[in-house]
Amino acid sequence: MPKETIAIVLFLGLSFGLFWGCLSLVLWSAIVDIPRLVIAPLWLTAEIGTRLPIHPYLAGATACALIGVLPAAILLALARARGA
Fold first, then answer.
1. CB-based contacts of 9: which residues, under 8 Å, 6+ apart?
2. CB count, 10 Å around CB of 2?
3. How many CB atoms are located within 10 Å of the residue 35 CB?
């Protein structure tokens, strides 16, 4: 698999995670009774922020990056295992 493809997939995963994080904040501030799956980045940010002494912006960026890059990395690992 070309390195450019890996970089693009990881970049798209990170972009998706950041977009989902921003969208979860907007939706939660508009609708208070929203399912946790929809506001997962915001919920993870709160969980990380309460357990670790880090800045809330850093906790949010970490949560969004994990949500976006982890599925992208799993997708790349499965593609590599299949030999694509």
1. 72, 75, 76
2. 7
3. 8
In DSSP notation, 24-65 reads HHHHHHH-SS--TTTTHHHHHHHHHHHHS---HHHHHHHHHH
Q: What is the DSSP letter of 1?
A: -
CB crowding 65-80: b at 16 or more within 10 Å, else e = bebbbeebeeebeeee
Joined together, the tokens standing for residue 44 give 């993870």
Up-side HSE of residue 29: CA atoms within 13 Å toward CB? Answer: 5
pLDDT digits (tens, 9 = 90+) for 38-72: 888 888 888 888 888 888 888 888 888 888 888 88
Alpha-carbon distances of 39 from 4, 18, 65, 77, rounded to whole Å: 31, 12, 14, 27
